[in-house]
């Protein structure tokens, strides 16, 4: 019995608006997400879950409204926490690269790739087991999505993360807990 997970990376989000939890979508992000909704409407999705961050919820909200489904929010699907202090983009990129070389690497007060992956998979695995044969959309973020996919197939690493778009959609087909096929659905 096949279970399908649709990883929906959030649309474009303004970096200067609010904090990590409350940032919304840019006007372009909102338009792109309307296209994401149209693309996923015919897929027969049974369940929608999301990171607690506003931009991820907004990225699956239209789909939930059309399908008359509630969005189940899981705190442990949030994006990776990088550090306890504000970091510049160059330091962030360097840290992310190092994290893929050493999954336990972290900046002060931050979370490692290994820890982020472990907490996200602790949500995803039970969903795959409890909802076998269903189609589930997940509102997510680039790095945590990459780490969840990487758990099932190590080919999903830094190079994969670096080519992701905002938004992006990956359809993952599972047989029980075994990933059988991954298809990119967003062609922007």
TrEMBL record:
Domain of life from the UniProt record: Bacteria
Pfam families: His_Phos_1 (PF00300)
Family matches, as InterPro entries: His_Pase_superF_clade-1 (IPR013078), His_PPase_superfam (IPR029033), PG/BPGM_mutase_AS (IPR001345), PGM_Phosphatase (IPR050275)
TM segment ranges: none
Protein name according to UniProt: Histidine phosphatase family protein
Organism expressing this protein natively: Paenibacillus baimaensis
